[in-house]
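Colleagues,

For the teaching module next term, I've prepared a clean inverse folding example: a structure given as tokens, and then the sequence designed for it. I'd like students to try predicting residues themselves before seeing the answer, so please don't circulate the second half yet.
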């Protein structure tokens, strides 16, 4: 049966142990019910900010094996400029049992090894050249995969129902640029508005369905494949707009 039990705080009223436990467990139970079907990945926050050769990971929430991990203060990582591919990632340690509590930890660090999906979660990758400054701001959609001195986050998993999804900022940038081409395609407009309005991570199935309909395919996509498929759609839309403008100009000239 469904029920809602909460304690009543009154003078000279002794709260039962069960009521205090209910008050303690309510937020955690609510969180687990809301995200019980979600994949591993970033749930909220965890944005990156570069300052010279330092990279700050902002506060956020991760999901890993159905367990939430919270970071309430920024974590700053020093980046060496060696011109080699480096990975920013979180390594999850075994559960620690203490006196009266159980502790789950994930440590942020940087190295040149690909993340181990059994123990780690990627936060980004980059190649920082000597004398250069790392950046986390992007000029346009194509700039997200610039090889040097730019943090690449297209491989980072974001928590979503059943399957990890892609970086929300990537989808919002795609939507802004595609709408900027003046497209009147109903599917494009609906997908772009969803990307721009949603506060949660866009479900993987929604992105997959859009790509398959647009590209007339039936397949699954990795995060990298999703990026390149979106880039292809965007390039085709921009190319169509240029051709239309050129054709219109030619007709005006003939008149």
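(Answer key — instructors only)
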């Amino acid at each position: 049966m469904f029920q809602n039990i909460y304690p009543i705080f009154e003078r000279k009223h002794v709260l039962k142990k069960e009521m205090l436990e209910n008050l303690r467990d309510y937020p955690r139970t609510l969180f687990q019910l809301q995200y019980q079907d979600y994949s591993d990945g970033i749930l909220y926050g965890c944005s990156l900010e570069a300052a010279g050769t330092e990279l700050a990971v902002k506060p956020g929430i991760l999901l890993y094996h159905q367990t939430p991990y919270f970071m309430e203060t920024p974590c700053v990582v020093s980046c060496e400029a060696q011109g080699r591919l480096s990975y920013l990632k979180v390594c999850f340690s075994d559960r620690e049992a203490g006196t009266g509590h159980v502790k789950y930890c994930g440590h942020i660090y940087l190295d040149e090894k690909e993340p181990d999906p059994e123990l780690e979660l990627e936060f980004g990758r980059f190649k920082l050249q000597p004398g250069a400054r790392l950046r986390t701001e992007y000029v346009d959609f194509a700039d997200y995969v610039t090889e040097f001195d730019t943090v690449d986050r297209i491989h980072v998993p974001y928590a979503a129902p059943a399957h990890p999804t892609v970086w929300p900022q990537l989808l919002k940038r795609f939507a802004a640029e595609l709408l900027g081409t003046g497209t009147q395609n109903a599917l494009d407009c609906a997908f772009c508005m969803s990307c721009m309005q949603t506060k949660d991570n866009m479900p993987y199935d929604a992105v997959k369905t859009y790509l398959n309909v647009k590209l007339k395919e039936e397949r699954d996509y990795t995060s990298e494949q999703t990026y390149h498929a979106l880039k292809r759609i965007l390039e085709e839309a921009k190319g169509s707009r240029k051709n239309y403008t050129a054709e219109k100009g030619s007709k005006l000239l003939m008149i």
